[in-house]
Amino acid sequence: MSGATGLVVAGVIAALFLIGGAVLLFLGLRMRADAAAATRENDRLSALLTAGPAQVMLVQADGRVDMPQRLADWFGLASPPRYLPELTGEDQGLSPQDSAAIAADVQAAQRAGRGFVRAVRPLGSPRAITLRGARAPAGVGAPGTVLIWAFDATDSEAEIARLRGETARLSSAFEALTGLIEAAPLPMWYRGADLRLAMVNSAYVEAVEGRDAADVVARGIELIEGSDRGGPLAGAATARDTGRSHEMVVPATIGGARRSLRQFDVPLPTGGVAGFAVDIEDLEQARSTSRRFAEAQRGMLDRLSAGVAQFGSDRALVFCNQPFRRMFAMRTEWLADRPEFDRVLERMREASRVPEVRDFPGWKAERRDWFTQTDGAIEENWHLPGGVHIRVVAQPLPDGGLLLIFEDRTEQVQLASARDTLLRVRTATFDNLFEALGVFAADGRLQLWNSRFRALWGVEEEFFTAHPRVDVFADAVASKLATPNRAALIPELVRSATGERQQRGGRVAFADGRHFEFAAVPLPDGNALFTMLDITDSRRAEQALRDRADALEEADRVRTEFVANMSYELKTPLTSISGFAEMLHGGYAGKLPRQADGYVEAIIDSVERLSHLIDDVLDLTSSEREGGELAREDVDLAATARAAADAVAPALKRRRLDFAVEIARSTGRITGDPRRLREVIEHLLRHALESTPEGGRILLHADGNATGARIVVSDNGPGMDPDTVAHAFDRFAQPGITPTGERALGLGLPLARQFVEAHGGTVELLSEPGEGTLVTVELPRR
């Protein structure tokens, strides 16, 4: 039993060993699998750590460094350092400052357990590394070990720098935008999503007369008053709800004045609404003024003589004035449809108011290009059938339209043609005048001259074509004059005509003996016309006439003296004849027969008439010598008239004439020469006596008024024909035949008129054949 038991026990033990070995084998295999898994996990983690964006290093309490090769590569080191000071190398690793700073951070972490973050840049590398260090947790290294994670922050730093720059730019732009909004001259504001004011600028504060922006926002002062369109928030609500900008014109009171504002509300992505308002009151006023101006301008264009047509940017007729409609025979109802430019040209062609061209479509296309011209106004002339000339001006408008102006220049062209003809005629006339002519401009330069002017001075044509000044011209021609210094008169006269606008002239003698009369005449255009006329022949004739006049005056003086002397010589024998005849008639030589007595009376009458004739001749010659001088004294004209009548009465009685004297009280007194006044009346009475046959009637009438006196002598003699009346007062006129059959010189009437005119009076003679003669003398009181 014991052996069996031993066997059993041995079998059990062997089984136990077998089971234990199997378990150990299982556990070994499992541990191996776990070790392999752990190795794989460690490799995976190492690979992840190696490939990860962060690397770790351990700094032991004694300063030793446990660093992977990749981190050493980041620092630019060939191999991992063993101690912290070895992080700095020659032109590689970290800078001494960064290395010292890391050592200080590690020491602080070891002592105080304070973590740190440090950014470093390896020497000569653009890489940026961020180090985050802290005391290593338990189980990681010995006590005092510091765990440092290194992150490659190159991309992050670049992004941070970019974001920092972008932030600075946006901040600057925001500040600039805020400053712009604040400085804007128009009210601007911002509303939150609840449409309450959140921000306003200074212009808004000033418009609502608030204290400051905060006060306006706090009190919610609105710029726009309430209205029937939903109040000041209507536009903002519409913009927020529709997501589109909203615009409306609203009234507002700013600075005590009613203004019109154009309000804009703009929705923002934040849910708020920004707004601003533009004062359009002046714009509305300007639009109203522009509208009134356009209406006034169109009214004015209707009154122009030129045709005006305006086309819009769509090339449709916008406006045309009345002259355009008349010029091109356009009906108002047709123009009301706003025809296009092409249709208007076609209608003009139908009315024969465009030039005749072969290719009308091409011509029309060229005119259509006027709308797009950029070189300013286009101008051309249309020559129409019938000799009509139209000037066309096409002005492109800024809005793409076109303004056309049609000016009928037919009359101007005709006038220009006539003017050209007149100028040619004037030039030909100017050049062929007998006078020498030159035209000097206002600046004194010679502008025009005719051939005689150049030939007169003997100057070359080249000198004149240079248009010399008047002083240069005077110096050049001075040698042609008999007195050279007289040439200075030419500039003086030209300046007087151009500057003072006065006409002056004179005479000048040439060295060759010719004489010229010259003058400077101001012309309407400011120039001066210098004329020269050859008066050599007329001067010679004038001198001859002057010599002849002197000779005639001398002969007349001799004749007058001879007549006076002869008259005085004749008076002496006439006195003797008259005396002896009166003695014979008075019977001093005895009683004469009746027939002899008649002869004596005839002798007395003839002597008396001859004596009066000699007295008239003496009066005539003495008045010529004395120059018609009269005595000036107070004269009783009535008494003078009676004395003259009494002196002539015997002769009238002998002729058996009826003599009537009518002296009115109004005759009065005048101032004059009493002797000459009496002779006037006697001459008139003797003329009537000689003109009236026996049995006739003679009337002497005198009257007057406050300003003058009148003497009238009339007779009923045979009268005079018109030719005799015309020469009745001429001295030494052709002798006439008296009613007695004798010839008379008729000096009485000339002497009477001479004496009357010397007193300031007038003599009038009226006579017709068979009706007698009436002589009226008017004498002023003074």
Automatic annotation (TrEMBL):
Task: From the UniProt record, list the reaction(s) this protein catalyses.
Answer: ATP + protein L-histidine = ADP + protein N-phospho-L-histidine
- TM annotation in the entry: 6-27
> Which keywords describe this protein according to UniProt?
Kinase, Membrane, Phosphoprotein, Transferase, Transmembrane, Transmembrane helix, Two-component regulatory system
EC supergroup of this enzyme: transferase
Residue limits of the Histidine kinase domain?
565-782
Note the SUPFAM superfamilies from the entry.
ATPase domain of HSP90 chaperone/DNA topoisomerase II/histidine kinase, Homodimeric domain of signal transducing histidine kinase, PYP-like sensor domain (PAS domain)
Q: What is its EC number?
A: 2.7.13.3
Task: List the GO molecular function terms.
Answer: phosphorelay sensor kinase activity
PROSITE patterns per the record? HIS_KIN
Q: Which InterPro entries does the UniProt record give?
A: HATPase_C_sf, HATPase_dom, His_kinase_dom, HisK_dim/P_dom, HisK_dim/P_sf, PAS-like_dom_sf, Sensor_HK_Regulatory, Sig_transdc_His_kin-like_C
Domain of life (superkingdom):
Bacteria
Name of the protein in its database record: histidine kinase
Q: Which organism is it from?
A: Sphingomonas aerophila
The taxonomic lineage of its organism, from the top, reads: Bacteria, Pseudomonadati, Pseudomonadota, Alphaproteobacteria, Sphingomonadales
